[in-house]
UniProtKB/TrEMBL annotation:
It catalyses: 7,8-dihydroneopterin 3'-triphosphate + H2O = 6-carboxy-5,6,7,8-tetrahydropterin + triphosphate + acetaldehyde + 2 H(+). Pfam families: PTPS (PF01242). SUPFAM superfamilies: Tetrahydrobiopterin biosynthesis enzymes-like (SSF55620). Its cofactor is Zn(2+). Keywords: Lyase, Metal-binding, Zinc. Its EC number is 4.1.2.50. It is an enzyme of class 4 (lyase). This is 6-carboxy-5,6,7,8-tetrahydropterin synthase. The keyword Zinc applies. Transmembrane segments: none annotated.
Length: 159
């Protein structure tokens, strides 16, 4: 049986590797749908609140009203300098790779499974018309890619 749980957060980012509008700072209302494999024991499988217990604070503290930033984006160094000069503590979610929705899905999938939740699919909606469906197989393939040292850089297949 699958339980679907939906969450959202608002975050800023840019994709500095794309030579288009996406290299400008901008934000999204990210819609997250988690698909959990559950087993029922009698009338109930896993309580809906058991997922929220882990995930609501996780999204609120790490992603909501944060800036998703690639550690090799020159802007990251600028923001670090700003915080050092002003003492301001900006909420930055640092990525080892560009903050594409694909890489966000990998990051979230890894973090959610770290809580011991049996996540089998993650849908990430970045805009009104674009959603990616990221499966357990996608995650395992990405783990091998990244462990094999595949470039984390965006590969934009020409249309
Ligand atoms: N495969 C991907 N394509 C794009 C990504 C991504 O992460 N993966 N990201 C972007 C940008 O973040 C951009 O902000 C969204 O681009 P846009 O082309 O505007 O997206 P939509 O067409 O879905 O937006 P609508 O407002 O619904 O028209 C670009 N591409």
């Amino acid at each position: 049986m699958i339980i679907q749980k939906s969450y959202k957060f608002y975050a800023a980012h840019r994709n500095e590797e794309l030579q288009d509008k996406c290299s400008n700072l901008h934000g999204h209302r990210y819609g997250i749908v988690c698909h959990f494999q559950v087993e029922r024991d009698g009338a109930i499988s896993t309580l809906f609140g058991d997922f929220d217990h882990f995930l609501e604070p996780h999204f609120k503290e790490n992603y909501d009203h944060a800036m998703l930033i690639h550690q090799h984006d020159p802007l990251y160094e600028t923001l670090q300098g700003h915080m050092k000069r002003t003492g301001e503590n900006l909420r930055l979610k640092v990525f080892p790779n560009p903050t594409s929705v694909e890489n966000l899905a990998f990051m979230l999938f890894s973090e959610i499974r770290e809580f011991g939740l049996d996540l089998v699919q993650l849908d990430v909606q970045e805009t009104d018309t674009s959603i990616i469906q990221y499966t357990l197989n996608d995650w395992r393939a990405d783990q091998e890619r990244f462990e094999a040292g595949a470039p984390h850089h965006a590969t934009v297949d020409s249309p």
